[in-house]
User: Fold these one by one.
Assistant:
Number 1:
Amino acid sequence: MCGIVGYIGNRDAFPILIKGLQRLEYRGYDSAGVAMISPEGNLNVYKKKGKVSDLLDSCKDKDKSGNIGIGHTRWATHGEPNDVNSHPHYSQTKDLVIIHNGIIENYASIKEGLQKRGHTFLSETDTEVLIHLIEDIRKHEPEMKLGHAVMAALNQVNGAYAIVILDKNDRDTLIAAKKGSPMVIGVGKDEYFIASDASPIVEYTKNVVYIEDEHVAIIRRGEELKIRTIRDKEITPYVQELEMELEAIEKGGYDHFMLKEIYEQPRSIFDSMRGRLNSETGHLKMGGIEEHEGKFKNAKRIIVIACGTSWHAGMVAEYLFEEYARIPVEVEYASEFRYRNPIIYPDDIVIAISQSGETADTLAAIELAKTKGATIFGVCNVVGSSIARATHAGSYTHAGPEIGVASTKAFTAQVTVLTLMALHVAKVKGAIAESRYRQLLYEMESIPAKVEEVLKLNDSIKKIAAEYKDAANALYLGRGYSFPVALEGALKLKEISYIHAEGYPAAEMKHGPIALIDEAMPVFVIATKGPNYEKVVSNIQEVKARKGRIIAIVTAGDVEVKKMAEHVIEIPETDESLVPLVSVIPWQLLSYHIAVMRGCNVDQPRNLAKSVTVE
Ligand code: F6R
């Protein structure tokens, strides 16, 4: 959560900071702020509750000059979203300013000590405490350089941080540090860019350094980048080339990132299979698994840990691994798992799924599983992310940057990779018949084209959206492989349109939720052809008998459900186990259109952030 940016070089810092913050706004948008040192040596700080556009309006006529500066977009943790709690925060003398992503857990005790020493605080934030502490350390050792004061302070704090500090009296230095929150530094010619991810940097330079935990970067104008640990050990910066194109992080003519990302799915699903699947030879190449083939082969159990949409992909994985590879799977919310004293055996395989690779709960669950000796396998989208680095092995999803806060293409890419993994393990174990294995590989290759077909239904899905946009509640039903898709459909609707929605296994409905059904209740059902079809048809009848309104996803050519439903959405036929990759698309489009029609901010829904780096 929270996006941070920084710049030092020869250009005007302000436009670079603002553009960077707009790129990072997906990380949080409760408030935004910037600080620059003008050529006259004034430290100008502007901050405002709301979006980056509100900040821009509020500082229209102000002095924004300077070629060194920092900026922040906030997802509030400590203190409500208001102007005062916005970053940057000042030190006691107002000589230093800081931006921070993360949480300082022991801030209250540090604050108490500082207050006893005469410090007064303007905001309710943990961040302000940190910058006061840094200044306090320097006050007692005036000869100490700012970088060393930062190191000393960071040795006293618990928690997570990605911080950048600006000193009014030194126009040539930025100090940055991180632990548990991401940070990347772009290395240009005589200039440096700092950001929470590479998206604000990619248009200026492709040379980047990913900062490691407990490292402090001392960034001085005209000098080489210096990195030290918080215990003052020198580190040689590892400059690597960024594999990201500017177009990947722009809207490319779409009204919203979410729509663009929905439409990218034929491509992103293809990309997540590219180089891995060859249906002609029957070969599947999953590097990470090959390294740990024996472990997968002998695993008595797989534990999946994830949050939100990634957890739904994990639910699909449960069905896949159990069906193809005959390995029992438990799917766990990372946030529950980490605090439950779970039973983990050294021969367990833990699969951690995360788009951002930064989700704090998932990361903590991984660390816990590691202490018990399990093998941890990551399925992440963001290359080089904390989770990707914390795992023993893994497979990237290669979906490209996902910027819309509601996850779409990341889900289908995760399910694609998990399907390939399950097939690979099934083959290695000899748990799947060769003919079925081959048939599934062929079928996987046809999925991008089938998703393309479903995207052509956009106009009719938009009409359905118009009819149900004012619903107060919605129910999503599915059985078997379609149950996780029901959960995902409900999550998509509630998070971007604020309509209350629940996903349920269709047969479970009669144990409670059926009481909710009346003529005002839209019930979104997946009733594709497969072993559960007749059962789902019965569930649809139960809804109809109570005057509920059925909107069903069916297999092309279906006649039975058509007779009962208000609307059917026909999707191309595929293997039962691959249906989630196709059937989730209409639910994504439906949520998108309903949210747009309700005037909601689709890409930045209220209270949410793309990357949840707090627990
Ligand atoms: C929903 C959504 C969230 C994320 C969840 C986990 O659309 O995006 O539920 O899926 O916060 O995030 P990652 O996958 O980055 O760990």
Number 2:
Amino acid sequence: MKRPIAMFAGTGHAVPRRALTNDEFAAMGIETSDEWIRERTGIRQRYIAGDGETLTSLVTEASRQAMADAGVHAGELDAIILGTVSPDRLMPATAVEVQAALGASRAVAFDLGAACSGWLYSAQVAEGLLATGQYETVLVIGGEVLSRIVNWKDRNTCVLFGDGAGATIVRRSTKGRGILSAYMRSDGNLADLLHRPKGGGCFPMNDAVLAEGSHYIQMSGREVFKHAVRSMADASDRALDGAKLSGTDIDLMIPHQANIRIIEATAKHANIPMEKVFVNVDRFGNTSAASIPIALDEARRQGRIVDGSTVLFAAFGAGFTWGSMVVRF
Ligand code: UT7
């Protein structure tokens, strides 16, 4: 089928009330420093969910904004796809709780677990749903409350992640706007480099798991870093090739916000100057599946994306999963 099929008709985002700065880790007894975190990652602060704030509440707020932006009401939603690896409950999917909160009674709702690539995968699944002709309006969200699955004693991970949600409305393309090219990949051979080793079906939660903290996220940072740089560079090439464009044709690049050094390396490879790269990792940290849709919403609201803008997206995450898209707005 010929692209574009699907376009982004509205965006929104939500984060918890509380911002946690780098300096606050020392007071929590964690051996780290603002200087180390800023230099190695570019992160200055991240938002952390407090009492009463859940994945469902953040995603619902972001979704309401996106629906208002697109002029879509809940009864019009045909599907809700939530990219997340930090659901409120292991069963059922958080997407159905969001469906209930929104009153989107007609929609089919499900979660999609692709870690930091979750929104990018979900957008491509939504495009596929639209291509069947059976779906018109899909709510595509990336949302995470990673603060509840990181080990707050592990400085290798706890300084990196943040909570938040970004929502988008995907509808049938008009006037040549929408997804011009898209790419997805995964490699399960590398699953152990970034994972939650226990607490699932293979090693059910018990006192020993709790005591050793093996239900929390564990990451081999340096290895993940290398793969992220390589895979996001390759994914950017694929999406550009698919759209028959080069880096110089891109008005804005929105990469997954994990680490400023990964972002810079990816942009350099794609021949896109940093002035054309959207960066908010300094304020949000790594929000996994939420990072790209939060950045997309900020970029639109700041006027960095206007009608006709051509935007390159690239993501990489646990799995490993990675992918990319070129979108004309
Ligand atoms: O979202 C998609 C998946 N995630 C990513 O893309 C993240 C990819 N990885 C990274 O961004 C980087 O690897 C990190 C930011 C996680 C780490 O940066 P790095 O430059 O690769 O550092 P490293 O892991 O090689 O550690 C360097 C040193 C180590 O000390 P020694 O062994 O050299 O004495 C660490 O123990 O830094 C130490 N270190 C810290 N020091 C202060 C690790 N974490 C911290 C910390 N504060 N928070």
